[in-house]
Design a protein that fits this description.
This protein has about 240 residues and is mainly β. It is built from two helices and eleven strands; from the N terminus they run ααβββββββββββ.
Amino acid sequence: MKKISLFLVCAILLSSCSLSLEQMFLLPVATATPTSTATITPTELPSFTPTVSTLTFTVTPTLVGIKTATPTPEFSATPPPFTPLVLITPNTATPSVQMDGFISIIVSETEFYKKGVCEPTSVNFTAQVANPASAAYVVLFVRFKSKYTGTTSEWTSITMETLGGGTFTHELFGEDMKSVDGYKNSWVQYQFVTTNSSRREIGRTATFSERLTLLDCVPTPTPTQEIVPTATVLKP
């Protein structure tokens, strides 16, 4: 019993040490007024926004369907269409003619006459071969072709004379051709063949047709003055 009473006394003394006078004697305690605490609000720094210049494009409106009127003169002279003249000269063969083994063919005339008083009575042919080292001969073939019926005579072959350097020439007279008396005012067709020294053909042209004419020479009669006899009157 004594131990319990001693324990209680000690507990009361310990608890009284931790209590204040107000708490021990149940006195009212003044309530502390809370002190306001300053709140620091961070200030936001101004943000830098770069300014980018904007390109401005001006659109030019296009009027669709509107045409600008073109002034037209009241009187406009329209020139006649120009048609170039195509002259086929005897000096140049047209590209349509085959020229295998030859560079050029030159013919001096487009027409000539049988022997007589009419001129010219001959035509000169000049042929230039493509390979002078191999070409030993050039043969000229000629024949007649009727302008009315289209019939042709047999070919006449003539070996041309060489001038050197691959050039060959020949002067043709109408009387040198076969059947000359059977054709009047007819075409003269011609063709060229070149051979080597062994007479082997190494080049040939196509037939030149309707470019050269052999004409009959018909002299124009010369008017003569008629002599009228004069009567002589004898006086007695």
